[in-house]
Amino acid sequence: MSEDKALIPVDDAGQLQKWSQEDFQKVVTSGSYLPRLQLMTANSDPCKSGEFPINHYALVQDKIYKDLGLQVDILLIAWRPKALDMGGEIVIAEYDPESESFKAIIAKSETKDSGCMYGPEYLVWIPAAKSFGLFFMGSKSSRRESPNLNSRLLKASTLKSKKIETTSYTWYCPQVTPCSTPFEIPDQEDVKEQVQKFNNPPKQEVQKVEDGAPARDR
């Protein structure tokens, strides 16, 4: 057949399908890892290849990048310290700021192109995607903005981006502003469950590089 079309006619209501797309997502996504919310800057691989718009926010899971647009409304729920080492064949995430490995990643992050980052990571609710997610502010410019984000914990906020210029470079980093648009909040039991997991991570997580990690900016 020359056309990729349904071979069984269905009515406008789609009565053959009992379950929704949201139900589908629940059974195909990983139960162990929340998707990450990321500002896709020009140095991220999908933007370099032209596969994703520059300076749009993405919800990333299992190599799928969902475009959330130039700005995204979120509910900031909780935060935790995180250090990330992407310099080798595996990605190492540390959550104990008193550990020697956490401190070592901080020290290595001062070296150019080390693949190391550190900063606050946030548990957020993204109403546009009807999903919880993780938002990591691990670059120098993101960490400078993080106090503004921290001040909006448990409040509705809008993430945008702001331009930063020096004599040598121009780049964009996240910017947080109050959100005036009403949105649906998650069920409180779901919030409690996610907060419990978020606040009790393993001391160290190890993932393969191909599983994805935040792009490093300045």
Question: Average pLDDT across residues?
Answer: 85
Q: How many DSSP-defined strands? A: 10
Helix vs. strand class? alpha+beta
Helix content: 10-25%
* Rg, nearest Å: 19 Å
Share in β-strands: 35-45%
Poorly predicted tracts of residues:
none
Report the major sheet: 10 strands, mixed
From the spread of the alpha carbons, the general shape counts as globular
Amino-to-carboxy terminus distance: 51 Å
Number of helices: 5
Instruction: List the secondary-structure elements in sequence, H or E.
Output: HEHEEEEHEEHEEHE
| Overall number of domains | 1
Q: For this entry, what is the oligomeric state of its chains?
A: single chain
Overview of the molecule:
There is one protein chain. The protein has 218 residues and is α+β, with helices and mostly antiparallel strands. It has one domain. 20% of the residues lie in helices and 35% in strands. The protein is built from five helices and ten strands. Strands 1, 2, 3, 4, 5, 6, 7, 8, 9 and 10 form a ten-stranded mixed β-sheet that branches. Strand 4 (72-85) and strand 5 form a beta hairpin. The longest helix is centred in the middle third of the chain and has 11 residues, at 140-150. It is globular. The model has no long low-confidence stretch (mean pLDDT 85).
Protein topology:
Layout: H1 21-28, E1 36-40, H2 45-48, E2 56-61, E3 64-69, E4 72-85, E5 90-94, H3 100-109, E6 116-126, E7 131-136, H4 140-150, E8 156-165, E9 170-178, H5 188-198, E10 204-208
Parallel strand pairs: 1-7
Antiparallel strand pairs: 1-2, 2-3, 4-5, 4-6, 4-8, 5-10, 6-7, 8-9
